[in-house]
Amino acid sequence: MKCMEDGELVKQVLSGNNNAFRFLVSKYQRLVLHVVGRIIRQQDEMEDTCQEVFIKVFRRLKNFRGDSKLSTWIATIAYNTAITAVRKKNRRGELSYNETPALVELEKNNETEHKVLEHNEVRKYLLQLIESMPVNYRTVITLYHLEEFSYKEIVEITGMPEGTVKSYLNRARAMLKGKIEKLAHLEQNNIFEDHVG
Q1: DSSP code per residue over 90-105
Q2: What does the alpha-carbon distance between residue 34 and residue 30 come to, in Å, rounded to a whole number?
Q3: Tens-of-pLDDT digits for all 197 residues of the chain?
Q4: Are 98 and 89 in contact (CB under 8 A)?
Q5: Which of 26, 89, 83, 88 is nearest to 54 (CA)?
């Protein structure tokens, strides 16, 4: 099962192999979580939406023609399901796109080595920066950099024109760069002040 190609995996699932579907879920759950998690903030709602995505994948798998990669097809379902969930919340007047970003909690472990802690802090800060961006920015930056989809695949997943995807990606990168440079500048000044003081 480990080396099963996507085409064979789809055939196995469609022939009623439950293990094959479990394998498909484990293979693509990180991708689905990434896509959904960039749009939906609340943990329980995120989990429900991810479950809904895989139910849709299972039901629609017979319609998968293999014109695109299975990962692109699944990411498209994840994106559309999450956007629909947010729109439903909007109609109910609940919080949506602009919810306070869910920040990644650092494990408080006194035994953690300084370097590991430092690495986690940097990662945590980067994730916070991405989380604080407008929904379209954080979606394209996640799909392109974290999931390594091409522009063409992102267009297919989100339905945005390629020019828009590139524009959002450039703006998101510029935003990240600006914030990181600002932080680096503040850190430098703090270090300098510490040495002077």
Answers
A1: HHTT---TTSPP-PPP
A2: 6
A3: 545 788 999 999 999 998 999 999 999 999 999 999 988 988 889 999 999 999 999 999 999 988 889 999 999 999 999 999 888 877 665 443 433 333 333 333 333 344 554 556 666 777 778 888 888 999 998 899 888 899 999 999 999 999 999 999 999 999 888 877 877 777 666 655 544 44
A4: no
A5: 26
CA dihedral (145, 149, 151, 155) positive or negative: negative
Q: How many residues does the chain have?
A: 197
Q: Please tell me whether residue 7 adopts helix, strand or coil conformation.
A: helix
Handedness of CA 161, 163, 166, 168 (dihedral sign): negative
The pTM for the full model equals 0.69
How many other C-beta atoms can be found within 10 angstroms of the C-beta atom of residue 76? 17
DSSP state of 132: T
- Cβ contact 4:23 at 8 Å: yes
Return the axis-axis angle of helices 70-91 and 18-37, rounded to nearest 10°: 50
**List of residues 6+ apart from 5 with CB closer than 8 A:** none
